[in-house]
Amino acid sequence: MRHTFAHDAVVAMEAGGDIRAPGGAVTVALCGTWQHEPPCPLAAHHTTAERTAQSDEVRLRVLFAAEPAAEARIRRQIETALSSSGLGAGFQGPDGLRTRWQLREAGPSSVRAEEADHAARLSRPD
Fold first, then answer.
1. Where are the residues of the annotated region Disordered (predicted)?
2. What pTM was computed for the model?
């Protein structure tokens, strides 16, 4: 049975960067591409991103549903995507724009009460 988990991260992003790009990198890491038919092959997931008052920071929150035995592996894939996709050449989104960022922090979090409905949808059997 799948459970829903949360993972939070903060990245430093260049001015004008697309705040959706780190979520795209997570999707590529978990699904192989950002363009695929449901269900997600490894873990159903959803990423939100918002700029903080510090204009170079973007806070990310990834909700994902997976078997408990796969949780640690999926968290590692999320962090690998966030720590490597923004460095060097950057991440090129479907619009052709390249966005760069640097991972500042990341780690597990609890699913919030206000996310319960979304978590239930993610953990539903395909």
1. 85-126
2. 0.88
